[in-house]
Design a protein that fits this description.
The chain has 3 helices and 7 strands; from the N terminus they run αβαβββαβββ. It has 160 residues and is α/β, with parallel strands linked by helices. The chain has one domain: 3-Layer(aba) Sandwich (Rossmann fold), CATH 3.40.50. Strand 6 and strand 7 form a beta hairpin.
Length: 160
């Protein structure tokens, strides 16, 4: 459960300009890794206010969102209400999984190990998981860290 002090904290991407900036950074990083996000099947975990999911869709990205409590303008968006520990998607469904600040036990009651296992489960082999503002140092054998572990802003993992 989110503490009252954290109200509004979840919404790191507040508008289309923020979304455009995040998208540009992701797209450049993916191209360096040989991944074209616009032709990938993408899952955004922790979709929050749905601003980024909406932006992805407007860019032609085949993206689906999931959040424990979807909010914002979700009408017409493919967003599912579910916890990350229990993703309601078949194994190997996505080329890319994105998350922004979803690992924080100080704000949420979470099982990080189960969250990572579920993310790995729904990723295709050689798929990428990109986590921004990640607050967990846990990893599992199915996900290999590809970025500098000292980078507190973006962590990139590949599913073996």
């Amino acid at each position: 459960m989110m503490g009252s002090w954290a109200k509004g904290w979840e919404e790191n991407i507040e508008n289309e300009k923020d979304a455009e900036s995040w998208f540009g950074g992701f797209e450049r990083r993916f191209k360096k890794l040989g991944v074209e996000i616009r032709t990938s099947k993408v899952l955004e975990v922790g979709s929050g206010n749905s601003v980024y999911l909406d932006y992805l869709r407007k860019q032609g990205v085949d993206a689906v969102g999931v959040d424990a409590r979807p909010r914002g303008k979700t009408e017409g968006l493919p967003i599912v209400s579910a916890r990350i520990e229990q993703l309601p998607f078949p194994e190997s469904s996505f080329d890319v999984v994105l998350s922004n600040a979803v690992f924080d036990s100080g704000v949420y009651n979470q099982n990080h190990q189960l969250m990572l296992k579920e993310i790995a489960r729904v990723l295709k082999h050689d798929g990428l998981y990109v986590a921004t503002l990640n607050r967990t140092k846990e990893s599992i054998e199915e996900l290999t860290l590809m970025s500098d572990p000292r980078d507190d802003l973006v962590s990139v993992f590949r599913r073996e």
